[in-house]
Amino acid sequence: MKQVLLLLLLSTTLCFNLSARTTPREGSAKRKASAAAYSTFDSTAMSMLLWGTGLAIVIVTAAILIPSDSSNGGNNHSHS
Amino acid sequence: MGVIIIPILRLFYFLAIITCSVCSAKNHHFFMPPNKWKLADPKKLSPMVEACFLGKGKTAFYPSINIATEEIDISDKEYISIVVKMHKDDPNIEFRRFGKIKTQAAIADLFELTTKTNFGTVKMLQTIIVKDNKAYVLTGSMHIDDFKTMSKTILKTFQSFQIVDNLTDCIKDLEKKQNLKKAIENLARSKSIKDKDWKKFEKTVLKDFKELGEFWQLQVMKDAYNNHISSSK
Questions:
Q1: What is the pTM of this model?
Q2: Is B16 among the domain residues?
Q3: pLDDT at residue B16 above 50?
Q4: For testing the chain B interface, which of A2, A31, A47 should be mutated: the one with the most B CBs within 10 Å?
Q5: B164, β-bridge pairs
Q6: Cross-chain CB nearest to A54 (options B12, B40, B113)
Q7: Is residue B15 pLDDT above 90, yes or no?
C-alpha cells in the first residue's frame, strides 16, 4: 500500500511538473518581439563599424564572452 | 489490487520521466556563415543577439548576418505578426514580404526591409523560425549596391540554418565525433579547466571541424564551456 501511495505521489508531482512546462504563464508572454528588434538594429549598427574594430580577435574568446543566457546579454548600445 | 496498480503506476512513472527528459532536451542551432566572413566582437552586440558575421562589399557598409533568439510563450503566427507590425510601424523602415525560405530547420517567412543610413540605402533580409517556444531571428543586411550579389549569399546562409539536439550529431566522421564527445565530457568533468586542456580542445574544434563553419565551432566551444561551468557548480 505504501508503495502504491509513493508511486502515486511521484506520478502526480511529475504530472504537475509537465503541465507547468506546457501551460503558458500569465503575464510572462513576450509580446514585444525583442529579438527581432535587436537583430534588426544590430544588422545595420555592426555593418557601420570600422572594419577591424567590430571584429572578434579570436573565435575562442568569443565563445566564452557570449553569455549562455542570451536574454541577459551584455549591451553596449543604447536603443531608442 | 496492488498487483495490477503497481505495474501500471510504475509504467506511468517511467513514461513521465521519459517525457520530462524529452521536454527538457536542449536544442542547439547554427548556420554556415559565408566563406571568409569574420565574427563580430560579441562585446558590441545587443542583448539576445548571439552572433554576427561581417563580410566585405563594394562600399564602406559591411554586409552582415546576425542571429538573435528569445524564449516565447505565444504561437509562431502571433510572434511574426508582432514583428511585422513593429516593422510597419517604424517610419524609417520600408517593409515588404519576400515570400518563403526553406531552411534546414523549417520553412519560414522572409521579409525585406529597406532603410536609409549615413552610408546610403541599406537592404535587410530577415527570417524567423519558431520552434519549441523559442524564436530564432536571422537578419542579413547589405548596401543596396551589393544587393544583387549579397542577397544570394545571405539567403544561402539562411537556408543552412538548422536546429539539432546535439551539435556533435552533424559530424560525419565517427572517430572525430567520438573524440569530440569525449573531450567535451572530460572538460565538463574536470574541476577547473587547465589552460593547456582548453587550448587543446580549441585547437581540435577549430582545426578538425572547419567544414561545419565558425558558428558551429563557436556553439560547440560555448556549450562545452557552459557544461563545465554548470557541472562545476
A1: 0.78
A2: no
A3: no
A4: A47
A5: B28
A6: B40
A7: no
Query: Is the pLDDT reported for residue A21 higher than 70?
Result: no
For B64-112, give the secondary structure using H, E and C: EEEEEEEECCCCHHHHHHHHHHHHHHCCCEEEEEEEEEECCCCEEEEEE
Amino acid identity, position A1: M
Determine the average pLDDT of the residues in B164-182: 93
Q: Are B40 and B134 contained in the same domain?
A: yes
Kindly identify which residue of chain A lies nearest to residue B79, measuring between CA atoms.
Answer: A33
For residue B54, give the nearest of A39, A51, A73, A66 by alpha carbon. Answer: A51
> Same domain for B89 and B122?
yes
Instruction: Give residues 16 to 75 of A whose Cβ lies within 8 Å of B.
Output: 17-18, 21-22, 24-25, 28-49, 51, 53-57, 59-60, 62-66, 68, 70-75
Q: Is A2 on the interface with B (CB under 8 A)?
A: no
Q: Give B39's contacts in chain A (Cβ within 8 Å).
A: 55-56, 59, 62
Q: Report residue B218: phi and psi, to 5°.
A: -60, -45
Contact between B79 and B135 (Cβ < 8 Å): yes
Residue B206: inside a domain, yes or no? Answer: yes
Q: What residues contact residue B77 under an 8 Å CB cut-off, 6+ apart?
A: none
Report the CATH number that the domain containing residue B81 is assigned in CATH: 3.40.1000.10
The answer to whether residue B199 sits within a structural domain is yes
Q: Name the domain boundary from B137, B164, B191.
A: B164
DSSP state of B40: B
